[in-house]
Amino acid sequence: MEALNKMIQEHGRAIGNDIIKVDSFLNHRIDTPLLFDMGRSLACYFAPFKPEIVLTIEASGIALAITTAHALGDIPVIFAKKSNVVNKFSDMVQAEVRSFTRRDVHSVGVERTYIPVNSRVLIVDDFLADGCAAEALISIVEQTHSKLVGIGIGIEKNFQQGAKKLRDKGMNLFSLAIIDAIEDGQIVCR
Amino acid sequence: MEALNKMIQEHGRAIGNDIIKVDSFLNHRIDTPLLFDMGRSLACYFAPFKPEIVLTIEASGIALAITTAHALGDIPVIFAKKSNVVNKFSDMVQAEVRSFTRRDVHSVGVERTYIPVNSRVLIVDDFLADGCAAEALISIVEQTHSKLVGIGIGIEKNFQQGAKKLRDKGMNLFSLAIIDAIEDGQIVCR
C-alpha cells in the first residue's frame, strides 16, 4: 500500500536490528486518514471471503480493526483482552501470547459467546513480527469452533518468523506493507 | 443518546453495586454502527470548540476516540500507553492512573512531541467512573502545555466521584449516557 510505505519511509524509525517504531502515525499517535485508508484496503482484499467478525488484540490492534470492520459494512469487532480483571467473564476462551516488544508472556481471552460457532472470523493486527499474537488469536478461533477466513496485517516484518510460519500453514495472510530488512538503520520496504 | 441508553438497558449487566458490564457492545465486543454513532454525537457536541487532537488511554478508549476523531474531520488520535515497553520513548510525559476495575495503579505516558504546545486537545474515553483515567489525561495535557477543550465520555457512572470532581473543576464534560444508580441489579439511566 503506497501511502503506508511512504509513511514508513518518511516517519518510521529503526531501533537496532529488529524494532521498527511507527508510533508517530500508527500505534501511539494515529494518523486518522491513513488508518481509514488502511481499513478500506484490508476490507477490499478480504470482502470476497465474507468475514462476519473482526478479531484483534488489545491495545494497538483495535484502531485498524475498527476501520477494517467499518469498511466491511460495519461488522462487529472483538478485541482479546489481557487477563486479571476484577469483573471476570463467565466463559473465557484463553491463549498465551509472548510480546516481542515487551518481552513478556501473558494470557489473553475472549468471552466465548461473542464468537458464535461457525462464524466467519477475520483476524486483524497492526504488526506481524514473530507471529505470537496472531497464533494466540488463531487458537481462540479454533477453540470457539468458528471459521478463520484470513489474517489482515498493517505492517509485516518479513525478516522475522511470523509471516513465514503463517504462510507455511496455508493461512490467507495479507499485509499492507512488508518490511524485508533493517539495513544500516534504514527500513527496507518491499 | 437514545441508541446507547437502549443498548445499556437491553445488553448492559450490573455486577454488584458498582460495576457495569457493557462488553457485549462497547469494550470487548464492539457494535460498530453504534460506535460510529457515538463518535458522531461526541463530534457534534465538541466541534464548536475546535479540537485538533483526540487524546485517549489504552485500551478500551481507543475505539471511541477513532470514530470521534473521524467525525471531527479525521484529526489525529493519541492514546496514552502503559509503561514498561522495551522500545522506550525519548521524551515521555507521564501520569499515574488507578484502574477502578483492575484495582491497580500504573503509569501511562505520551511522547511529548505528539502534543504540540498550545494545541487544542479533546479527551475521549469509553467510561467515566472515579475519574482517575481522565485526571491522568488532564495531567498530560497540562504537562504538554496544550489546551484542553473538553472531555467526551461514552458512559458516565454518575454515582461515582469522577463526573462531580470534573464538573466542580469547571471542565467541559459531555457524556453520551449517564447512569444514576444500580438499584436491585437494575441499571438506572438518566
Quick description:
2 copies of one chain form a homodimer. With 190 residues, the first copy, chain A, is of the alpha/beta class.
Secondary-structure element string of chain A = HEEEHEHEEEEHEHEE
Sheet with the most strands, sense and barrel status of chain A: 8 strands, mixed
Helix content of chain A: 25-40%
Strand content of chain A: 35-45%
Q: Indicate the structural class of chain A.
A: alpha/beta
Question: Unreliable stretches of chain A, pLDDT < 50, 5 or more residues?
Answer: none
- Quaternary organisation: homodimer
Q: Number of helical runs of chain A?
A: 5
In round numbers, the mean pLDDT of chain A is 93
Total beta strands of chain A: 11
Strand order of the largest sheet of chain A: 6-7-5-4-8-9-10-11
Rg calc of chain A: 16 Å
